[in-house]
Specification:
Largest sheet: 5 strands, mixed
CATH class of the largest domain: Alpha Beta
Strand order of the largest sheet: 5-4-3-8-9
Shape: elongated
CATH topology of the largest domain: Glutaredoxin
Radius of gyration: 20 Å
Bound molecules: benzoic acid
Number of helices: 6
Strand content: 15-25%
Number of strands: 13
CATH architecture of the largest domain: 3-Layer(aba) Sandwich
Number of domains: 2
CATH superfamily of the largest domain: Glutaredoxin
Structural class: alpha+beta
Amino acid sequence: MPGLTIGDTVPNLELDSTHGKIRIHDYVGDGYAIIFSHPADFTPVCTTEMASMAGYAKEFETRGVKLLGLSCDDVESHRAWVEDVEAYKPGTHLTFPILADPDRSAIQQLNMVDPDEKDARGERLPSRALHVVGPDKAVRLSFLYPACTGRNMDEVLRAVDSLLTAARHRGKVATPANWRPGDRAVIGPGVSDDEARKLFPQGFETADLPSKKGYLRFTEV
Ligand code: BEZ
């Protein structure tokens, strides 16, 4: 199904939220933002996800990343649900807004529709979609999970750390499988060894592989 993907500009929608009207581009501002959707308020997995995300909010804030939840229920429902979320994990306080999309127009434009899920009236519901949006308002990374699978917020944070690391090095590095902050990154395939020596004075290590192509180069970042 065609829809919003990496590199696309997020539509600049204005929506009601638990924090009043929000225009998406203004909310993203000059930093990064995570827009993440849920099938519905007052559902079990969504409640655990929202509480978990609230627990990570400080981590995202220290990285200059704002959070923005979304489900199709209205703001009144969101506000009542937030009480449940906060009670489920005592000490949790939801500091970020949840967008409302009762007419389902935003989930369509944000590519967040789950084709398999419908509410009791047969209306479409959002998937567990998540877009990391950059300061240029373009999608940098997306997750797409079905209703049955709650997301791992540690992985969201890890992916954000990867994006920020790559951006800090102007796209000259990438992060390998299972990378964690503090691990070595790899030097991108578009960087020659000569350029790498200039860019990474700390040096780099080239894996000795049968092809001898020298494309897997690790460096401290
Ligand atoms: C849940 O959040 O638990 C959920 C929501 C919609 C469908 C299935 C599960």
